[in-house]
Amino acid sequence: MNGRVVRVGGGSGMWGDDLDAPRRLVEGGPLDYLMLDYLAEVTMSVLQRQKARDPSHGYARDVVGAIESVIPALASGSVRLLANAGGVNPQACGAAVRAMLDAHGMGGKIRVALVTGDDLLPRLDALLASGHDLRHMDTGAPLSDVRDRVVAANAYIGSAPLADALGAGANVVLSGRCNDAALAVAPLRHEFGWKAGDYDLLAAGTIAGHVIECGAQASGGNCLADWESIPDLATVGYPIVEVAADGSFVVTKHPGTGGRVSRETVVEQLIYEIGDPTAYITADVISDFTSIQLTDEGADRVRIAGVRGSGPTGQLKVSVAYRDGYKAVGTLVYAWPDALAKAKAADRIIRARLDRLGLGFERIHTEYIGGGAVHGPLAGADAGRDAPEVQLRIGVRDANRANVERFTREIAPLVLNGPPSVTGYFGARARVEEILGYWPALVPASVVEPTVELLP
Predict the structure, then answer these.
(1) CA within 13 Å, CB half, 363
(2) Residues 6+ apart with CB under 8 A from 28
(3) Fewer CB under 10 Å: which end of the chain, C or N?
(4) What would the pLDDT profile of 114-162 be if each residue is shown by its tens digit?
(5) Where are the beta strands (DSSP E) in 161-226?
(6) Is 104 in the same domain as 171?
(7) Residue 100 and residue 64 in one domain
(8) What residues make up the domain containing 382?
(9) Pick from 247, 332, 254, 259: which is nearest to 291 by CA?
(10) For 256-291, how does the pLDDT look when each residue is reduced to its tens digit (9 = 90+)?
């Protein structure tokens, strides 16, 4: 890896990640770009709920504070920032960021661009009418089966429009739904001039983005390998990729920070959520993870080279959210002795009372936390038998909200009329929540039209 490198730091792995990580990455050492990944399928559903309650919401609001914390670097031009924080409402996200920058007198100094076009909801009926069935990728069912309940539909767009936004002079690029790694690929396309047909390079950039898209998972967080020996996670350093024009890169972190970058931490992140390792599909490219040549260079430096890629499929994944009934979950904690037996008895009592009331549910599920719930049957028949406490966690789901509401009234009575030694109930009734189901589908990339808007 010779010549100039571009340093991209992964400062957020999810909405709710460490609020101070972006600032620490920017101030901790050399950095050219900061990528902040906020979105997951469940996050899109949460954001859609928030937008339904308040049209000014629907984006990852943490991004405003993250950008505020690195204003000096953005204003100087030493660092540029990309985030998919727009969620289901990029316009509101852009307005909030602009208002914050204006309050700091930075409205004309820090340029903000919005990348949109991923939101297919306004076009959904037209797409269906033109023969795009958006069939469920697992079941094959057409989206028309749930069309009347759809509340969001977002395509995973690629890196090209984000790179265009950088080319237009944006210091901050805010997008809706894009594939996570695109936040890292876009700066590399912009800096090195990589083209749409440079599949090996785009695959290398995609893998670099994949390594850092989950934040500190690549630098010691949530790491299975020798986790007890990983130092000082309280000040964990978030990962950085130093990428060369030939696509080779080093995964590292700033010196003096906690955590660890090693072969083990990087490999764990590489295999995270990839499916077929020979064909990791994004809008830009199909990446072959089996082509990776990985070298541990010591001192928190792992080098990756030799990545191969091939042309994209011509289709984009679409994440659809639809109303899928209601749920509620109630909990009680039972103390030793016989904690698990008490929790199981309470479960039988609740179910008997629900039957007596004539309440049938689409699904009712019980877990005994502390009694083998995490590993299920693998925990063994006697798991939790002598536990000091066991939490009964029982949930229901149903299309009928009234049925679910009635269930929530059956938890509290067990405090007085169920098995003894109950605790952990503080008077708050289980809350009824609407379920947003997830419907993965595909559409031709040609029908998705990303747009770039440089805010005035």
Answers:
(1) 11
(2) 237, 254, 256, 257
(3) C
(4) 999 999 999 999 999 999 999 999 999 999 999 999 999 999 999 999 9
(5) 172-175
(6) yes
(7) yes
(8) 323-439
(9) 247
(10) 999 999 999 999 999 999 999 999 999 999 999 999
